[in-house]
Give the backbone structure.
Amino acid sequence: MDRNGPTYIVLFAAAVCLVCSAFVSTAAVSLKERQEVNKKLDQQLKVLNVTGIIKEGEAADRATIVAKYEQHITPKVIDLESGQLVPDADPATVDVKKALGDPALSVAMTSPEAKAAQVPRKPKQALIYEVDLDGDKATDLFVLPIFGKGLWSTLWGFLALEKDGNTIKGITYYEHGETPGLGGEVDNPLWKAKWIGRKVYNGDKVAIGVKKGAAGTVAEDPYAVDGLSGATLTSNGVTNMLRLWFGEAGYGPLLKKLRAGGAS
Ligand SMILES: Cc1cc2nc3c(=O)[nH]c(=O)nc-3n(C[C@H](O)[C@H](O)[C@H](O)COP(=O)(O)O)c2cc1C
């Protein structure tokens, strides 16, 4: 075959493509399991970060993360239709992202809060995390998953609450596609620190939100956090998802019981 002819060139290019695609797909398939394990580890680290057990940015190896998670964190399944814990359910079986794509495992939401947060469905079952800080087997904090639309993406994260079911211990996002320096400032530790000590509920109303401009101190402004400058749409997304998940359709009923002093 003529090495400079078009047939040779096309066949050569096709062979190179075939070999490269075989490499890429083999790598993708063989690394999938490891990616899943790393994703799970990252979520465990974020749960530990939001509680302050491992400080954000603090170096922690895999063994430390797993050990601290096992020592301090107990995931529990919550039925989001009744708002009650499901004591016998296995947390390992709950996959919220998968459930959202399965009509048998999720339900449509049409409330104004769901529309504002652009969350059209909720899983029937979700996870919450009980946190024992001092090893006395009593729950000191709750970590509650949150998600909702920002400007470009769905932001997925956690909000940690004190055992009063109202005071914020921390907020963090583990996945989003907002613009670095604008909406991506949700990851800025200085902004996240501004949430600590603020309150979610004023009476039974979900009052917490991100305001435009600067909020006062925790004492002056217990229900507001500084807006992200140049990123009002992401800021509104954060407010909207909190109004949804801490309201009736989310953790509202469970936390109401807690605030009233009932068993969780
Ligand atoms: C390239 C580009 C990326 C942007 N990324 C974000 C973003 O991630 N989050 C956001 O709320 N606004 C983002 N904006 C700005 C919004 O379009 C909008 O102007 C802004 O949210 C208004 O906020 P402000 O009232 O604080 O200026 C971006 C704008 C541009 C041009």
